[in-house]
Amino acid sequence: MTNFDYDLFVIGAGSGGVRAARMAAAAGVKVAIAENRHLGGTCVNVGCVPKKLLVYASQFSSDFQTAKGFGWDIAPPVFDWNNLLANKNSEIQRLQNVYADLLQGSGVTVMHGQAQITGAQTVKFGDQSYRCQRILIATGSRSSVPDIPGKEFVATSDAMFALQSLPQRLLIVGGGYIAVEFAGIMQGLGVETTLCYRGEKLLRGFDDDLRDFATQEMRKKGLDIHLNSQIIQIEKTAQGYTALTDKNERFEADLILYATGRHANIEGLGIDALGIALHSNGSIKIDQHYQTNIESIYALGDVANRFNLTPVATAEAMAFVSQCYSDTPKTVDYENIPTAVFSQPNIATVGLSESEARKRFQQIAVYQSVFTSMKYAFSGSDEKTLLKLVVNQENDRVVGAHMVGNDAGEIIQGMAIAIRAGATKAVFDSTIGIHPTIAEEFVTMRTPIRS
Fold first, then answer.
1. Are 40 and 18 in contact (CB under 8 A)?
2. What is the pLDDT along the chain (451 residues), one digit of tens a residue?
3. For residue 219, what are the CA distances in angstroms to 33, 146, 222, 382?
4. Cα-Cα-Cα-Cα dihedral of 201, 202, 205, 207, to 10°?
5. Active site residues per annotation
6. Strand partners for 263
7. Helices marked H in 147-207 — which ranges?
8. What interhelical angle do 48-68 and 177-188 show, nearest 10?
């Protein structure tokens, strides 16, 4: 029998890697985990958690204005970026400590630094080589910037969480989650913000009504959005930076943020020498068991590029451990995964978009409601809320729920349970709403707008 130093060696201590390491250790497996940056990975350090804290901070500017209509006489508020940054850093440090305690408490050996896979069952860390029965790659992804003249002058999302001061003028290039979320954050914090995207609509992959509606509402808040516009060159000037587009537009900014996508984080792992199969975009190819083309090496989370969300990575980790170390193997169902974009206004969705449903089913019905929330009754704000349901008419099942508006992420979480449970439109209609709420609109839409 072969002697191993570790039964499982995990590379990457983000959400997926930590969950896999802890669950495996709890099952009696001897586990080591290596991380070359921060415990908690992107989500905890330069992703979901600090981003949501910045979102909360940026929403107060709008709330202060809304409060006046409800009788609050508020002196002009003063925002302190350095205070927010210090509080954010303290919270991230607390979470890093939590992750360290969880790993150590589970009996996992934690290594801080770069690990390299040198063989099918060998990992090198520093001057040491370890024999490992299984190796799990969970190194996530990193921001990528296209190769254009002046790319050395741009910032990526990581840098936005450590700015020494806020810029007066910000140009954001991109049209996905990160771009629209930072656009709302910076606009809400008083930064003159421009969003430039090469496509016809923001948020590719979302329902078209949501994409159009969200863009309209973001523009109402003062965000300067330019679509069908591609940056071809960036120059440094005495006043900051100038970005030139293929339409001969020129954008002046003190800071340029590129949020144009992310690539699998595989540098330094020894992937090429081992011959681990990759997709054309550089992510690791895996089968339904998270196994690469090398039997003893596995991958999950963003580095495998299946569905790049933190809860999906943790679900994959639990499935991986169950398949390798238990008698009751589990799988991840990638259908009907809910997601939210913490833009302003908030966007959330679960299930099929209208266009996806039309391709899959012969007959569908679309229900939609657009209205002004009671929150803005006295504010003079023209901000609207959109709720939408997509129904398969063949069996009356609700196959998609979509929302743009306050607390969309909180509300759609409940809709996700209903859709996964197979709820029909008749079930929605027979459910008594909570009045007065935004969410009650999901159970009071009776007449389809399209079918």
1. yes
2. 468 999 999 999 999 999 999 999 999 999 999 999 999 999 999 999 999 999 999 999 999 999 999 999 888 899 999 999 999 999 999 999 999 999 999 999 999 999 999 999 999 999 999 999 999 999 999 999 999 999 999 999 999 999 999 999 999 999 999 999 999 999 999 999 999 999 999 999 999 999 999 999 999 999 999 999 999 999 999 999 999 999 999 999 999 999 999 999 999 999 999 999 999 999 999 999 999 999 999 999 999 999 999 999 999 999 999 999 999 999 999 999 999 999 999 999 999 999 999 999 999 999 999 999 999 999 888 999 999 999 999 999 999 999 999 999 999 999 999 999 999 999 999 999 999 999 999 999 999 999 8
3. 45, 26, 5, 11
4. -70
5. 435
6. 142
7. 157-160, 177-188
8. 40
Q: Is the pTM of this model over 0.85?
A: yes
Residue 252 vs residues 170, 198, 227, 238, 258: alpha-carbon distances, Å = 8, 18, 17, 11, 15
The first and second tokens of residue 283, run together, are: 């992510």
Domains of the chain and any CATH numbers: 6-143+263-325 (3.50.50.60), 151-260 (3.50.50.60), 339-443 (3.30.390.30)
Residue 33: both structure tokens together: 């985990």
In the block, tokens 């743009």 appear at 404
Give the start-end residues of each E strand in 278-427.
Answer: 297-299, 339-341, 347-351, 364-371, 385-392, 397-404
Single out the residue of 381, 370, 313, 245 nearest to residue 47, CA to CA: 313
- Residues belonging to the chain: 451
Whose structure tokens read 């790659």?
Answer: 137
